[in-house]
């Protein structure tokens, strides 16, 4: 899904708030290896502009004046299986990703407009979506805890920390740096998490995506 290094990553933006859209346009335009190919405010405009081959990633608001951004994303992905999708929403509802049809569930990321998302986090999520990965909002992940009796609740404290960082889109080396442990230790923890959650480490579907979605499924708001 990642574009070749011979060209920039092409990003489309679908956001109905003019001020916020213009801010995002400036942010994306300032990144040398990105190319903003479209910036529109409605589902109809997006459907007209985002024909196959135009973009590598689409950044979607969920609430649009003429429809739903998630439904738009599903439609676009079925027409363009390699299109990455980043949901950027005012709603703190990451669990919406659990309702995605299985055939289009990879390559979706979710950031909240209300969580203090940084430009760095935005760019990371854009690139992750292009690579078919899943990145969840770091701030929102800190507000959840495992549901009683779930497989996630049976993870050790360290395994749960690794799972949360994995769901934020960090690589093994990034997790190692964050937790100040060796990369080999991280790898061991990741495989232990996969085993505890019953996730195949080498399936056709990215196991890191499966682990992130399992975290969403088996956690809820912290009391």
Automatic annotation (TrEMBL):
SMART domains, A to Z: HTH_LUXR (SM00421), REC (SM00448)
InterPro entries referenced in this protein's UniProt entry, alphabetically: CheY-like_superfamily, NreC/VraR/RcsB-like_REC, Sig_transdc_resp-reg_C-effctor, Sig_transdc_resp-reg_receiver, Tscrpt_reg_LuxR_C, WalR-like
Keywords, in A-Z order: DNA-binding, Phosphoprotein, Transcription, Transcription regulation
Record PTM 4-aspartylphosphate, positions in chain: 61
Domain Response regulatory: 10-128
PROSITE patterns linked: HTH_LUXR_2, RESPONSE_REGULATORY
Domain of life: Bacteria
Pfam families, alphabetized: GerE, Response_reg
Domain HTH luxR-type: 148-220
Protein name from the UniProt record: Response regulator transcription factor
């Amino acid at each position: 899904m990642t574009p070749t290094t011979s060209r920039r990553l092409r990003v489309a933006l679908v956001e109905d708030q003019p001020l916020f859209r213009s801010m995002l346009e400036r942010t994306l335009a300032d990144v040398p290896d990105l190319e903003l190919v479209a910036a529109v405010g409605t589902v109809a405009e997006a459907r007209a502009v985002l024909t196959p081959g135009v973009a590598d990633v689409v950044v979607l608001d969920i609430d649009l004046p003429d429809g739903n951004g998630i439904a738009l994303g599903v439609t676009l992905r079925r027409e363009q299986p390699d299109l990455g999708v980043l949901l950027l929403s005012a709603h703190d509802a990451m669990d919406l990703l659990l309702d995605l049809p299985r055939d289009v569930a990879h390559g979706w990321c979710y950031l909240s407009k209300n969580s203090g998302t940084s430009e760095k986090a935005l760019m990371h999520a854009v690139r992750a979506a292009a690579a078919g990965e899943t990145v969840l909002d770091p701030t929102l992940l800190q507000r959840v805890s495992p549901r009683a009796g779930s497989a996630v609740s049976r993870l050790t404290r360290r395994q749960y920390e690794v799972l949360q960082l994995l769901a934020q889109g960090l690589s093994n080396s990034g997790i190692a740096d964050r937790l100040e442990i060796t990369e080999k230790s991280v790898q061991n923890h990741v495989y232990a998490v996969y085993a505890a959650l019953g996730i195949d480490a080498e399936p056709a579907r990215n196991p890191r995506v499966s682990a992130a979605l399992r975290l969403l499924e088996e956690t809820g708001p912290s009391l």
